[in-house]
Amino acid sequence: MVPINELKPLGRETRQHPKSQIDKLAASLAEFGFVLPIVVDAVRQVVAGWALVLAAQLLGLVRVPVVTIVDLSEAQLRMLKLTLNRLAEDADWDVRALRLELTELLTIDPQVDLQLTGFSTGELDVAVSDSDDLELPPPEAGPAVTQPGDLWILGEHGAICADA
After folding, report:
1. What one-character DSSP code corresponds to residue 4?
2. What is the arithmetic mean of pLDDT over 93-104?
3. Domain annotation for the chain: domains and CATH numbers
4. Which of 1, 53, 111, 144 has the smallest set of CB atoms within 10 Å of its CB?
């Protein structure tokens, strides 16, 4: 554990952390505590976890857990910082597995606050809903409205019914 006021950013802050994200992180820290340490270099520049530093400051924490990396050059540390931030963006959610996980959490504890996961209420509603419920039934077949040669004007665009 190190004093939070001794931590400083490494290089430029290339990620922007909106207040809503910091608030979510602070709520997570308040609920679960620090489960991942902040990664720093030998002079306590933050390689990974600057948003956690901001959330901890918001909560008034004076000491935070860190892991210190001492065997990388400054260039390697800055590359690592970018790498850790960028690679997380390449993952997608498995919506079926996410739905099952969230549903099971509600089964285990019906009072659980799923917003602590960082998802908004709208995102949670969509995630736990059965996608089949959201699909519209196919339209009933009826007489054709458009005939070959018809031109539909769509703002500055047009669509013509033709035979290709």
Report:
1. G
2. 93
3. 2-90 (3.90.1530), 95-134 (no CATH)
4. 111
